[in-house]
Design a protein that fits this description.
N-terminal domain of MutM-like DNA repair proteins; 2 domains; Helicase, Ruva Protein, domain 3
Amino acid sequence: MPELPEVETIRRGVDAAFRGGRISAVAVYNPRTVRRHPAGAEDFAASLEGQVITGSGRRGKFMWLTLDDGRALVCHLGMSGQFLVRAPGVTPHKHLRALLRFEDERELWFVDQRTFGFLEIAEFDGHVPTTLSHIAPDVFEPEFDAAQCAARLRSRRIEVKKALLDQGWISGVGNIYADEALWRAGIRGRRLGERISQRKALELLGHVRVVLEDALDSGGTSFDALYVRVNGESGYFSRKLAVYGRAGQPCRHCGTAIRREVIGDRSAHYCPNCQR
């Protein structure tokens, strides 16, 4: 599933391509993509036609485009969702689920092989769409309070890997970047939150931010064609991964073989020497 760096990379690409652009036509090819729009696909399309994109935003793994009527077009990419910027006349992708055509004839495609992603139109609650207000701020938002977040972790009898995946505690972090941040912090994913000091919890959150920044600088992590940037190029942070997906390979720090285990039905990768 695309995590914060992938979603932010896509948001930046869409914003650069279409901010200030007016939507001239909308086509929905799979009603499941707009399943959160009770009035149906035709009404969804009609609600967007004529709207101007005035900005964009993101919280965790969600992104949105701000419309000139004051609402937001919210997107969650699910497991395989992509936004692609295409010139007119290009042969449609076989997994094209929705299309926004702009006045300059360029198109924004929403491609989603597994159809777990969705598009919805929402009002705003402050600067965040109402449908996202229950999701915790991510580490890049002004509202994020690292000290409070660390204290909450220490009050919970929960494995720290599970806590990092809890979007109600901190948003945007998934399996890849949780493993990478834990390795950088020298913490085993099975350690309970209540057994981590405030200093170490703050250190971990610092590593979360840094690993997300590093991944963003690389355009995210691509393992296959299910995640690409809006121009179709892959992200290359996979070349820099220290533990995720590297079971049996040597730790980049000490040379010990990386191990894989399962925590909360999710795979976890760690160095048994560096992460006690």
